[in-house]
């Protein structure tokens, strides 16, 4: 039995094969596998008896899911209105230049993935960047360099 089939069987089994658990099953698989490949989505569809189009629809609707491999370290820049006004585009450009990545890309060495979101809910502290779940308010270039060096 393939690794994917076993992973899906465990995830589906955790929710007793209930179709109502689809989102949580996908979250569990994303956590375990790092991303949701077409093979994983088809296997979830098969094991749950849910149309593949429905599984794909859910996987593409929610930002929490990735259909592509992600880097070890996730960098998320807030592009909400308050952060935009306070310099988010400049912050994003800085990070993009430092890592040689555009939003939505992952470095070739799979070390970093750069993402943007519409709001992190920290409007008064913007512009905000989240690196591996840690929030940073308007970090300087030297602070970013320190952070990126420390997350090897």
The CATH architecture of the largest domain is 3-Layer(aba) Sandwich
Oligomer class: single chain
Please identify which CATH superfamily of the largest domain we are dealing with: Glutaredoxin
Mean pLDDT: 93
Low-confidence stretches: none
* Span between termini: 34 Å
The main sheet comes to:
4 strands, mixed
User: Number of helical segments?
Assistant: 7
- Count every beta strand, where a strand is a DSSP E run of 2 or more residues: 4
Residues in β-strands, percent: 5-15%
Percent of residues in helices comes to 40-55%
User: Strands of the largest sheet, in order across it?
Assistant: 2-1-3-4
| Inertia-based shape | elongated
Helix/strand/pairing class, anyone?
alpha+beta
Question: What topology emerges from the helices and strands here?
Answer:
Blueprint lengths: L2 H12 L7 H12 L4 H11 L3 H10 L11 E6 L2 H5 L2 H12 L12 E6 L10 E4 L2 E4 L3 H10 L2
Parallel strand pairs: 1-2
Antiparallel strand pairs: 1-3, 3-4
Helix pairs in contact: 1-2, 1-3, 2-3, 3-4
Describe this structure in words.
The model has no long low-confidence stretch (mean pLDDT 93). The chain is of the alpha+beta class and 152 residues long. The chain has a 4-stranded mixed β-sheet with strand order 2-1-3-4, covered by helices on one side. It has helices at residues 3-14, 22-33, 38-48, 52-61, 81-85, 88-99, 141-150; strands at 73-78, 112-117, 128-131, 134-137. β3 and β4 form a beta hairpin. α2 runs antiparallel to α3 (38-48) and α3 crosses α4. The two termini are 34 Å apart.
């Amino acid at each position: 039995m393939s690794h994917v089939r076993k992973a899906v069987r465990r995830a589906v089994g955790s929710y007793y094969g209930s179709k109502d658990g689809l989102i949580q099953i996908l979250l569990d698989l994303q956590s375990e596998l790092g991303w949701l490949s077409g093979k994983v989505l088809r296997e979830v569809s098969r094991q749950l008896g849910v149309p593949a189009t429905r599984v794909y629809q859910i996987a593409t609707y929610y930002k929490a899911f990735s259909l592509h491999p992600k880097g070890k370290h996730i960098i998320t820049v807030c592009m909400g209105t308050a952060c935009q006004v306070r310099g988010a585009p400049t912050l994003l450009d800085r990070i993009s230049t430092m890592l040689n990545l555009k939003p939505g890309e992952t470095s070739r060495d799979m070390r970093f993935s750069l993402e943007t979101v519409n709001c992190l809910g920290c409007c008064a502290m913007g512009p905000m960047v989240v690196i591996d779940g840690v929030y940073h308010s308007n970090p300087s270039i030297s602070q970013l360099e320190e952070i990126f060096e420390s997350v090897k």
